[in-house]
Structure prediction request, 481 residues.
Amino acid sequence: MTQTTTGTTVGDQILHDSKLNSMVDEMVERIVEQSSQITDVREPNPELKESFQDLLDRCAAVKGRGLMYPSLGSGAGNGALVEMADGSVKWDMLTGIGVHFLGHGNPKVLKAQLIAGLNETAKHGNLQTNFGAYEFGERLIEHASKGSNLKHAFLTTSGAMANESAIKVCYQKHAPASRVLAFEHCFMGRSVTMCQLGDSAAGRQGVPLSTLVNYVPFYTEAAAEQMGGANKFIDYAVGRLQRYINRYPNQHACFIFELVQGEGGFNVAKREFLKELMECCKANEIAVWDDEIQTFGRTEEMFAYDMYGLGEYVDVLCVGKMTQACATMFTEEYNPQAGLLSGTFTGTTSDFTIGNALIDELASGGYYGKDGKFAKHHAEFCKMTRAMADKHPDWFPEVQGSHDIVCGVGGMMRMTPFGGDKAKIVRACRVAYDEGVICFYCGHGPFHLRMLPPLPVMKLEDWARVFARLEVALGKVASEV
Prediction:
């Protein structure tokens, strides 16, 4: 947080009180010292078995069903390692679907949280806020506007609500157009509208369908090969888009783009594929809405549109997950009328202090570019996966509908053992958890084992330790099969 006024207020005095700040530094130092005891994977503590099961039972009673993983943190961790409430320690290669990108026990995050505690406003909203929320928005806009025309940001508490704000902006701009274009296998969130946009029948089962959606195929190397090459696939996708436009003239408000698909399988498209679709949208006055809620910060640039060099086409953008607070950004042309966007909450003070620390870290850490840290980590992940496949070829049979056993970009990583069979992939995730590696799955057939690791705090040599555990897990699943 920064000083919000030029004069001296009591709030400024508290924020800049040397004794309070010294206490914050001492607390961070002490927490880091305690967390440094966590250095490797550890088995559950048998003495905690009964009390831990009691916690799991209470969770199941509240939720209405048991947890997929018995995953309850103790409140401590060290880098990419996290301690669970049963005393076990695991490699956190999922980070809460990407929320904890700066890892566990990070002194920068700890300090940001404690500094937030000096602010009496726990929750910020549209009618009662401190400047911290807008300072966070400023940082996002500062970096987003370098490669795009994005100029404003509306903050909210979840990715789904950021997407809800985005679709309202697009609807208002292009009223009375009411149709939406999206990619096959996309995932947009779990609100009533977003579950209808997402291409998953299970995600909208029992929900009345009120949103009109047309789907365009997403580019994959396997699909392009089957169609006779990249150019033929691109021509087919653009042709399909144009047929929807011709069939429903002036009825599409927006096309929501996942530049790298997340839940759909960590699929990475070619720039020309995305560019031609965006140009078709522009020619037909359809908003280009870029959903970077999962991709933000993880690709070879902070924003995926910068990795592709497509920022000039983006009208509306959503970011979330690792940013803590979520945001809908838009150009001046798409700045909505007063009253369209509002809400009780925009986030907590710690959302904004941690979000600011995260953006500053990403902007200054040498993470991006073809030779950046994220690209190097991705290359190491690919190398380790291929080495394991060479050692155990029976675990990695040819995958129907997939070009390679390993894919993704930067901090979005996935591998495809067991031919992409869903039951085996889900089983592999559960066994990997027990063996000390937290991961998850993605894709809609074939299915993949995915990771969203805390790359800023990982070392390249950590991958050998992660894969040693993962190899044990896959071996157990293979033997069961």
In short: DSSP finds 16 helices and 17 strands in the chain. Residues 123-364 form a domain with the Aspartate Aminotransferase; domain 2 fold (CATH 3.40.640.10). The chain has two domains: 123-364, 373-480.
